């Protein structure tokens, strides 16, 4: 199959390599030069996307992210790009469009449990824009569209957390965090090609919510640093579980805390 990546960052690169190894033809769209030898790279602005000169596309992935987290950047990157992308794909035999969104569409912030059956209810403008993007793609492409909502993406580096542990003496609340390793996210995006009747959306997380103060404490103890003091038992954040991902038999390779 001919597979197109619209947006070609670290997650796309990993997924594209896996798909190439499975024998697929890969084309990518980005705004900067890419050099991976297993793909045909095109430099284009998604707002003026032109796919008229490439081979028919069977599968498309959309993985866009703004350079900053402002409302204007979210509007332009996520919402304003939908129409030109759909327009550019209309003459291609698209079997499936996989769009990466975010669990920011869930507005819970008091330690609640969230899973794939939780109805999205964003608590901020950026979350509403992400949900609006999802709804537009599903409106245009209906059964062909699958939404993926990852939690916080990490790649194994502990430098940031070690720095935080060295400088944190107290923590205000029990703040729940949720993570997915970038390699597992890439593998899940590939896995979705082999699901015959996918759901309209999937959360992607390691199913191990953890409070941030406990993560920091664990590092402090391992490095013999002074231990932080938890100031309040009040819970913030949410505990997220990928029930549909588990139901289709996908297994993580990075599931450690």
How would you describe what is shown here?
The chain is built from eight helices and 16 strands. The mean pLDDT is 94. The radius of gyration is 19 Å and the shape is globular. It has helices at residues 10-21, 71-79, 82-89, 125-141, 159-167, 182-191, 212-222, 243-247, and strands at residues 2-6, 25-30, 40-43, 59-62, 96-100, 112-114, 145-150, 152-154, 170-171, 174-177, 179-181, 201-204, 210-211, 229-230, 235-236, 238-240. The longest helix has 17 residues, at 125-141. It starts with a strand and ends in a 10-residue tail after the last helix. The protein is of the alpha/beta class. 32% of the residues lie in helices and 23% in strands. The chain has a single domain, classed as NAD(P)-binding Rossmann-like Domain (Rossmann fold). The strands form five sheets. A seven-stranded parallel β-sheet has the order 3-2-1-4-5-7-12, with helices on both faces. A three-stranded mixed β-sheet has the order 13-10-15. The chain has a two-stranded parallel sheet with strand order 6-16.
């Amino acid at each position: 199959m001919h597979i197109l990546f619209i947006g070609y960052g670290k997650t796309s690169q990993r997924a594209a390599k896996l798909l190439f190894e499975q024998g697929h033809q890969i084309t990518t769209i980005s705004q900067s030069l890419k050099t991976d030898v297993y793909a045909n790279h095109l430099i284009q602005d998604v707002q003026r996307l032109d796919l008229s000169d490439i081979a028919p596309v069977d599968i498309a992935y959309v993985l866009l992210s703004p350079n900053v987290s402002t409302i204007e950047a979210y509007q332009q990157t996520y919402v304003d790009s939908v129409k030109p992308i759909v327009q550019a794909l209309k003459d291609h035999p698209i079997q499936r469009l996989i769009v990466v969104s975010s669990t920011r569409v869930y507005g819970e912030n008091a330690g609640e449990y969230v899973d794939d059956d939780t109805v999205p209810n964003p608590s901020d403008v950026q979350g509403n824009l992400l949900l609006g993007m999802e709804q537009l793609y599903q409106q245009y492409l209906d059964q062909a569209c699958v939404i993926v909502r990852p939690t916080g993406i990490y790649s194994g580096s502990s430098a940031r957390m070690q720095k935080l542990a060295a400088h944190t003496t107290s923590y205000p609340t029990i703040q729940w965090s949720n993570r997915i390793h970038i390699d597992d996210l890439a593998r899940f995006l590939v896995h979705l090609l082999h699901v015959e009747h996918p759901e309209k959306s999937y959360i992607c997380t390691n199913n191990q919510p953890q409070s941030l103060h406990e993560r920091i404490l664990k590092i402090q103890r391992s490095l013999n640093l002074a231990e932080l003091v938890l100031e309040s038992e009040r819970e913030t954040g949410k505990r997220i579980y990928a029930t549909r991902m588990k139901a289709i038999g996908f297994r993580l390779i990075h599931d450690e805390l």
